[in-house]
Amino acid sequence: MLIQEIGKEQCEELLAKVGFWRLACTFENQPYVVPIYLAFEPGTLYGFATMGQKVDWMRLNPLVCAETDEVRSQTDWWSVIIQGHYEEFPDTAPYAQRRHDAQALLETYTPLWWKVGVEAAQTRERFDRNHAVFFGIHVDEVTGRKALPDLAWEPAR
Description:
The chain is globular, with a radius of gyration of 17 Å. The protein is α+β, with helices and mostly antiparallel strands. It has a six-stranded antiparallel β-barrel, surrounded by four helices. The protein is 25% helix and 47% strand. The protein has a single domain, classed as Pnp Oxidase, Chain A (Roll).
């Protein structure tokens, strides 16, 4: 298997195709990672959540990391990591367009973009439609790797 870095342009091409991510945040040196639907456009990831630990923690520490990947086999995969910072889009007039744009972009990735957040909140008995959170993750750094089969190499027997 050959593992190689992929450039920003190729990372962005791959990110335009995916919607399912893992989002990491930290508070008081404790990491927390959750699966989430995010929508990518160059420079920003857009997301939706309901009130819970990740929103609480991102409000306290806006530095976050997001990862997505595609695994075809053990020797054929790619992975992209984004380092960035969280910005919430409150339900107020100045943010109305940002919320609308985030929702429209999320809908292009999956029709169920909202379901994970709502189901999780109902499980926690904390769901309140008035506290749905749209947010952006401003991209500070993008890195990626991919693996390809190395047909010339075989393990020793």
